Amino acid sequence: MPFPMKVQPIDSSTCTESIKNDTVKPPVLKSRLKRFFDRPFPSVLRISSAAEKPSAAGAANDGAVAAEFEPSSVCLDKMVENFIEENNEKPSAAKFGRKCNCFNGNSNDSSDDEFDFSTGFSDSVTNSSFGDSSDTLKSLIPCASVAERNLLADTSKIVEKHKSCKRKDDLRKVVTDELLALGYKASTCKSKWEKTSSVPAGEYEYIDVTVEGERVMIDLDFRSEFEIARSTGNYKAVLQLLPFIFVGKADRTQQIVSIVSEAARQSLKKKGMHIAPWRKPEYMKAKWLSPYSRITPAPRAAAAEESDAVAESKEAPSESC
Q1: Residue 247 belongs to a domain
Q2: Which NCBIfam families does the entry mention (predicted)?
Q3: How far apart are CA 216 and CA 247, in angstroms?
Q4: What is the DSSP string of 283-304?
């Protein structure tokens, strides 16, 4: 006799609920940023070329290493913190005049004030030309002959002896007289030039001495004639090469004046100052190379004899017939 089968009644609500639970759940949508950081980054995690060739022993650990270095929400939090910190630092960077050149095709955020290529290049060229001019000037400053050196030594002694003279005119006259007393053919020269389109008219005085049949010029305050306001460091170095007392011929004088005048022009130009007409090379050369006239004083011995003769003639009694 077959056993009676008992069928448990089915609760329709419970069945419906279980069927609903067994259905496939739809995938949870992730944001694009989240999906980006869930992806592995093998190129970023690669430290060396050796890591690209995993050994058999280390193949089992690849999954663990990848899981250890896989970007996660921690990386995202770090990026957000860095982004906030960079935004907070931007005002301080702008405070010092730094600007980004991203739109110019240059990712460097250095400012134009930090390095100017054109200025640096011009400065290097200027320094190079200054070095050449300085070397040339050093070779022109010393006296060209023994006679010039002796004349310079005698002139320096006279100037040192009469250093109490404050006026240039008085000192020039004293030096000329002393050189005449030493046997030199010395005289005071006065150059004069007319006004042209580039330089104004002017005149200048210096000492003229004939040494071994050649004309030699003496300037007792040569360096001060080239002093300018707000000079650059290079021009100050050039000025220090010039002597206070200059003794030399016309050709050497012309070369020195040309070099120093050009250095003065560059100094004024770099300082943004106007070049005055009396600072131009043409005007400076005219001081020593223009037509001149000699003012030769009478020798002291001849003047003394003449004065003694006049005094004796006045004191002598007149003879009557």
Answers
A1: yes
A2: A_thal_3542
A3: 7
A4: HHHHHHHS-EEEE-PPPHHHHH
pLDDT attached to residue 230: 86
Please give the model's pTM, rounded to 2 decimal places: 0.54
Q: Exposure pattern of 29-60 as b/e (b: 16+ CB <10 Å)?
A: eeeeeeeebeeeeeeeeeeeeeeeeeeeeeee
* Per-residue three-class SS string for 229-274: CCCCHHHHHHHHHCCCCEEECHHHHHHHHHHHHHHHHHHHHHCCCC
Residue 87 forms part of a structural domain = no
Would you state the pLDDT for residue 299?
A: 56
Q: Find the Cα–Cα–Cα–Cα dihedral 27, 32, 38, 39, rounded to 10°.
A: 110
Residue predicted with more confidence, 102 or 33: 33
Domain around 289: 120-299
What's the Cα-to-Cα distance from 163 to each of 157, 170, 204, rounded to whole Å? 10, 11, 22
**Is residue 171 in a domain?**
yes
In a domain, 288, yes or no: yes
What sign does the dihedral 47-48-53-54 (CA atoms) show? negative
How many Å apart are CA 228 and CA 238, to the nearest integer?
A: 12
150 vs 18: CA distance, rounded Å = 126
Give the model's confidence band at 87: pLDDT under 50 very low, under 70 low, under 90 confident, else very high: low
Nearest to 292 by CA among 241, 253, 235: 253
Q: Could you report the per-residue pLDDT of 158-176, keeping only the tens digit for each?
A: 999 998 888 999 999 999 9
How many domains does one find in the chain?
1
> Rg for the chain (alpha carbons), in Å?
48
